[in-house]
């Protein structure tokens, strides 16, 4: 009788993709570029990005959305796929800026 394999690579469950807050069926993707405590802090954050990082945000629309933790998030997009949003995040992270792929939702700024 063969002994059961205990090596970690033998798990039968699929390897999860990077954790994204994107529900199945999403068709409009965005990137979360920052969080502020108050709603009126979102617009200045976007203006700062337009001023100091114009090439990164060129052609993107800004949205604000309140998260379950009651903080306001700045979402930019839309992107046609999660992969496209993650690729954009790579550029923001190279500029030492926070970025996470997410759903393109919320109120227009």
Please render the helix and strand layout as text.
Blueprint (H helix, E strand, L loop, with lengths): L28 E8 L5 H11 L1 H4 L3 E6 L5 E8 L2 H13 L5 E4 L3 E2 L1
Give keywords.
5-stranded antiparallel β-sheet, about 110 residues, alpha+beta
Give a structural overview.
This protein is α+β, with helices and mostly antiparallel strands and 109 residues long. The protein has 3 helices and 5 strands; from the N terminus they run E-H-H-E-E-H-E-E. Strand 2 (61-66) and strand 3 form a beta hairpin. The chain starts with 28 loop residues before the first strand and ends with a strand. Mean pLDDT is 85; it is low at 2-18.
In whole angstroms, how far apart are the ends? 66 Å
Assembly state here? single chain
Strand content: 25-35%
Q: What gross morphology would you assign? A: globular
How does the helix and strand content classify structurally? alpha+beta
Percentage of residues in helical conformation? 25-40%
Find the count of extended strands (DSSP E, 2+ residues).
5
């Amino acid at each position: 009788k063969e002994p059961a394999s205990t090596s970690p690579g033998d798990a039968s469950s699929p390897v999860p993709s990077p954790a994204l807050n994107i529900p199945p069926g999403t068709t409009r993707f965005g990137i979360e570029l920052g969080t502020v405590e108050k709603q009126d802090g979102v617009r200045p954050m976007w203006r700062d990005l337009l001023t100091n990082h114009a090439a990164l945000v060129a052609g993107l629309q800004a949205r604000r959305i309140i998260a379950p933790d009651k903080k306001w998030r700045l979402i930019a997009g839309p992107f046609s796929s999660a992969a496209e949003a993650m690729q954009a995040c790579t550029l923001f992270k190279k500029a030492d800026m926070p970025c996470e792929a997410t759903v393109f939702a919320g109120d227009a700024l």
